[in-house]
Amino acid sequence: MSETPPNQPPAKPAEEPTKDAAAPAADPAAEITLEEIDALIEAEDPSFRLNALEIASVQVGSEVVIDNETLEEVQIDENSKATREDLLTPQEKFLKRHLTRLRRALNYWIKQPMYWWAEFRQGAWPFVKKHGIGFIKSTVAKSLAAVKNAMATTSTSLRKTVDFIKYSRAREKSLIFLAFCLLMAVGAVAWYALTGRSINFMQSPYLRSYGDVAEKVWDYDINGPTQDFYGSSLQPQFFVQLDKLIVNLKPVGESKTPMGVFQFYIEGSSQETAVEIKDREKELRNIIQLTLHEMTYDQLSSPEGLANAKKAIANEVNKFLTQGRARRVLLDTVVLKP
Q: Helices 46-56 and 90-119 sit at what angle, rounded to 10 degrees?
């Protein structure tokens, strides 16, 4: 015995067709099967197909069977479930919440690529298949043609070069002659370099040594006894004696007022230098006083300290002179007070 579903109205009794009534036209949609509809939906909208499969997996209209349970017992089970949720610790709630989010994210990232791939196949792939493959083929063909042309050009150039060397006897002789001349020039330069000689146009116009123009050259031992050219007794000497100087030395430690009395001789390199030293003696005395004022009693109380003081005075005096230079500074008198 068939039953009518509760949500649908009762079916009307079928009417017998009369002879005068025209036969209804055949509906084209009635000939399409369910498999064809599923294939069409999957081709047009794959995401809708996936959602439909999920909905179809749920059994709609299935009866709920309750064995040996009443509504009160179901209510008790729901209350106990809520109680179990309340009994969870904060760490367990935190873990459960994040696991749920992780499950949702995994479901999204698993289904989303499938949706993207379906969208690509439906929208972009036909365009790529239609235009992209042709573009790639044309580009490869043009590249191969360009390589072929370059190889042909290179081959032609090499062939012309070989023909030029092979069939031009006069040019071949010219090349051999030029190579011979170049080899001779390189050999001549190498010979001059190895023998230590110099080519005329490479000689320096300046005199590098008196030995190149002297009639005779003598050799001497550098480590042997020598005599200063300017200090020779055969050469005139130009000494200038300065007046005595009283200088306050630099105080150090317990020494509060160290003093010194000095008298110097300055040797000039020429007579003009000696005249300049004598004429500008007051200025030179001031320079010497300033130099000694920066020295201490301990520095000047030893022979090494006095030698350093004379060198410092000579350097300062040479900065000041304009006619020649001061060759030596000699000390005639020195009296120190700590």
A: 130
Whole-angstrom distance, CA of residue 205 vs CA of residue 328: 37
273 CB burial (10 A radius; 0-12, 13-18, 19+): buried
Per-residue pLDDT at 178 exceeds 80? yes
Q: Which among 269, 276, 246 has a CA at the least distance from the CA of 258?
A: 246
Helix and strand tally (H, E) in the chain? 11, 4
> In this structure, what are the phi and psi dihedrals at residue 223, rounded to the nearest 5 degrees?
-85, -5
pLDDT at 158: 81
3-state helix, strand, coil in the chain (%, to 5): 60, 10, 30
Structural domain boundaries in the chain: 71-143, 238-337
Strands (E) in the chain, as ranges, are 238-241, 245-248, 259-268, 326-337
pTM for this entry:
0.36
Report in angstroms the alpha-carbon separations of 94 from 40, 87, 98: 45, 13, 6
Contact between 329 and 285 (Cβ < 8 Å): no
CATH topology of domain 238-337: Tetrahydropterin Synthase; Chain A (3.30.479)
